[in-house]
Amino acid sequence: MPRPSYPDLYPRVPYIGREPQKQTLLHWAQHIAYPDHETSHALYFQADGGMGKTWLLRSCPEILRDAIPNLLIARIVDFYNYESRTPDAIELKLIEGLKQTDNQWYRLPEDEIETLFAEYRRVYAGYIRARERGGASQGEYTPAKLRETFIKAWNQLAERRPLILRFDTVETLYSPPPPPEALISMASASTGADMVLDWIADVVPHMKHTLALFSGRPLLYQKTDINPFVERLQQLNLLAEPVQEILPFTDPDVVRKYLARHDIEVQDQDIPRIMDITVGHPLLLTCYAATRGPLTIPLHFHSH
Asked: Per-block average pLDDT, block size 10, for the chain (304 residues)?
């Protein structure tokens, strides 16, 4: 079952803490915005569940608006959903994800996007017809032609405004395949990383003025010391920085601000006990805030 999508508007509350990650994001977003910088880069954010990876991706407009007001930010492509894992699906989602749904400053009107990608739509329609006839590997309507047409339209847009791509839950690309019945309505979907990595290799290095953001949990079945997805980004010379690890909060002031965001005011003497209960984990801090006060959480809920 596809994971429910969230309204792709500004988060209702600010993104608290994570200053190193926010500064890294800001630095590379500014970098791709330089007129003479025409290459693409990638950042990879890694953390356990509930640490705020997705929230960081969703907070990009809030974090970057003042510094880069002409930025375009495509809607998040979530690899949790199997239908998001083919090259065609990724491109179509990115095109749709550049369209305004509520006058967002970081999107464009639908008719403007459709005009820019009109040739891509034509080639895509021909590609689908050719594939149905079994001839999509030759002639004008090939996967290579589709990628080429997408890159051309993308770069025409990037010449005007720098662009950010966002991809979430990368770890699901390495999960065991689902049972066959899970793919009844999406038989063409990939269940692994190969098709996604092939698309990245074919397309992202050729994008101009583009920053690709990826986030995921540590892999459960990782065979080597390095995440294979990250390793491929490195091989493609896309990864701009080492993996950005998002860890539990350790700064009492950040914990205080995080709880204040949830309308919970705490005293200095409360912080050590709160840290003992939650180990600074944002999800546990959110659960703590939901209880409306430290006395309602049993003292035996300790991390050790």
From this structure: 48 76 96 90 95 93 92 94 86 96 92 97 91 72 93 96 96 74 50 85 97 93 77 96 94 90 86 91 89 49 34
Residue where the block lists tokens 């662009």: 163
Distances (CA, A) of 209 to 82, 131, 172, 255: 28, 32, 28, 36
Its domain, for residue 236, covers: 19-245
Closest by Cα among 60, 46, 54 to 247? 46
Does residue 291 share a domain with residue 176?
Answer: no
Q: CA–CA separation, 301 vs 289, rounded Å?
A: 15
Calculate the dihedral angle through the C-alpha atoms of 233, 237, 242, 244, rounding to the nearest 10 degrees.
-50
Q: Count Cβ neighbours within 10 Å for each residue of 262-296 and write b for 16 or more, e otherwise.
A: eebebeeebeeebbebbebbbebbeebbeeeebee
One domain for residues 192 and 290: no
CA distances from 99 to 73, 79, 158, 161 (A): 10, 20, 15, 14
Domain of 103: which CATH number? 3.40.50
User: What does the block give as tokens for 76?
Assistant: 């998040």
Is residue 7 included in any domain, yes or no?
A: no
What pLDDT shows up at residue 38? Answer: 83
Sign of CA dihedral 277, 243, 232, 57: positive
Number of Cβ atoms within 10 Å of the Cβ of 115: 11
Given this model, what pLDDT does residue 304 score?
A: 31
pLDDT of residue 300: 39
